[in-house]
Write a structure and sequence with these properties.
With 157 residues, the chain is mostly beta strands. It is globular and about 45 Å long. The chain has one helix at residues 2-21; strands at residues 26-31, 36-38, 44-49, 55-65, 72-80, 86-94, 105-107, 110-121, 126-134, 140-142, 144-153. A hairpin with a 2-residue loop joins β7 (105-107) and β8 (110-121). It has a single domain (25-153), classed as Jelly Rolls.
Length: 157
């Protein structure tokens, strides 16, 4: 009986250590009021990079309802580096396939789509600010719940 208990403790300890290893460097979401992303709303995420020698994985996650009327969403990511340099990049988040079926994970009336940026190296240590803008010409987009950013150290190959 004691032997089973000690094996269970060892297994639980290993599971705990493994799960702690993959903790994100940064994780934050922005929730939109009334499920509307208005053009003047620009979610901002500030990530403190402590080690510029490492590669990082970035995941941008968008959650909409099944009432979202577009097949995609264009997002502009404005980046400000620790030394003040700025860049602006457009990204397309695909939401449905051409036949109208959902691309992301659908749970009830919520659809979650992710855009993955694998193994990115940031040139400087310090605080990077990422500001997101919706890129649709309408003054607001309905049925958008939230958008989030997760940054993790890339696993070694």
């Amino acid at each position: 009986m004691k032997r089973r208990r000690s094996k269970a403790v060892v297994l639980l300890s290993l599971a705990f250590l493994i799960s702690c290893e993959s903790a994100p460097t940064f994780e934050k979401s922005y929730v939109f009021e009334n499920k509307e992303w208005k053009q003047d709303v620009k979610p901002s995420f500030t990530v403190d990079i402590k080690d510029a020698s490492k590669d990082y994985d970035f995941v941008l996650t968008l959650r909409t309802t099944t009432e979202y009327k577009y097949s995609n969403l264009w997002v502009y990511m404005n980046t400000k580096t620790p030394n003040g340099e700025k860049a602006r990049e457009p990204f397309e988040i695909k939401i449905t396939n051409p036949d109208g079926s959902w691309i992301g994970k659908k749970t009830g009336t919520i659809v979650e789509n992710s855009l993955n940026f694998k193994r990115r190296k940031l040139p400087l240590k310090g605080k990077y600010t990422f500001i997101l803008e919706q890129g649709i010409t309408d003054s607001k987009i309905d049925q958008v719940l939230d958008i989030g950013l997760v940054v993790t150290e890339a696993k070694k190959l």
